[in-house]
Design brief:
Number of strands: 10
Largest sheet: 5 strands, mixed
Strand content: 15-25%
Mean pLDDT: 85
Strand order of the largest sheet: 1-3-8-5-6
Order of helices and strands: EHEEEEEEEEHEHHHHHHHHHH
Structural class: alpha+beta
Shape: elongated
């Protein structure tokens, strides 16, 4: 069944959906998730929101769909959803009888206007992670982030003065910086699964560059690689950087150079033919990339094997 698409322009729009009291501030709100009471028809609803959502939840009776991904919130995990994203819910048949708990922080970008965080928030890559790439928290980490959330809540619910917004924004930034640190920890502590990602990436790229039709397919993109590994581009690059110090794009270039060196040293194909065979539209682009990575032109590299 096609879901009805709504446009939530204001923080208060979510409050109405959740059947809770109106927010005390029009641009920011912290919600006790145990008080959320969605209407019975919420499964038929999909919404696009103009605000950021940071969630820390347990035992939630709905599955969250963010893009094409879903996740059951039966552990203490955090999700970070950027503005202009589309969200929907579905019943979670696996949930136990425990009471849903946790917190939601909703932040309209206008609240951050003219602040350094307003300019920098787009650089926190985890806002582009899919739901299955949520942040799993230790008990200590969870308590630390809860303290920050409660401090934000106390501040915006108290008497507003000229310092209030600046203080709240500084605590939001602190929360995001801790999340960045904890994601780095997650990349490290999940090394077994992350090494599997690295192995899958190597196999995927090797198979791609064996194709004789690269002249028509072109070069693999970061988005294509991420899609085939069922990860978001940002999360994939985060995993790879934690393991190898290199981004997805650098891994693509490494595999590309490996194939280029092989053809330059073992065949009589011209540089242009090799460039086309590897998926480049213009041989000059291939030559530029090759020289940038090896400090030799393809022709200079080939001379070492003649």
């Amino acid at each position: 069944m096609m879901k009805n698409l709504k446009h939530f322009k204001k923080v208060s729009d979510y409050h109405k959906l959740a059947n809770i009291a109106a927010p005390q501030h029009p641009l920011i709100s912290i919600i006790d998730y145990s008080l959320v009471n969605y209407p019975s028809a919420v499964n038929e609803l999909k919404w696009r929101q103009d605000y950021y959502t940071i969630g820390l939840k347990r035992n939630v009776v709905h599955k969250l769909f963010y893009g094409q991904q879903e996740y059951d919130f039966d552990e203490g995990i955090m999700t970070f959803i950027a503005q202009n994203q589309t969200i929907s819910l579905a019943d979670n048949p696996n949930i136990n009888t425990k009471t849903p708990s946790g917190w939601l922080l909703l932040i309209h970008p206008d609240f951050l206007w003219n602040s350094s965080l307003g300019k920098q928030i787009i650089h926190y890559g985890f806002f582009e992670y899919t739901v299955n790439e949520a942040l799993f928290l230790s008990e200590k980490e969870e308590l630390m982030l809860l303290d920050i959330l409660k401090t934000i809540k106390r501040e915006y619910e108290s008497n507003i003065d000229k310092f209030s917004q600046k203080i709240v924004i500084s605590h939001i930034e602190l929360l995001l910086n801790y999340a960045e640190r904890f994601y780095e920890r997650q990349f490290i502590t999940r090394k077994i699964s992350n090494h599997q990602v690295l192995s899958q990436l190597e196999q995927l790229l090797s198979h791609y560059f064996k194709d004789d039709n690269l002249i028509n397919k072109g070069l693999p993109t970061v988005q294509w690689v991420a899609n085939n590994l069922n990860l978001s581009p940002n999360y994939l690059s985060g995993v790879l950087k934690s393991l190898t110090g290199q981004s997805t794009q650098q891994h693509i270039h490494n595999k590309l150079l490996e194939k280029a060196k092989d053809q330059l040293s073992t065949t009589l194909l011209s540089v242009s033919e090799i460039a086309y065979n590897l998926g480049f539209e213009h041989p000059a682009s291939f030559t530029k990339l090759f020289k940038n990575k090896t400090e030799l032109s393809p022709t200079e590299f080939r001379k070492n094997y003649n």
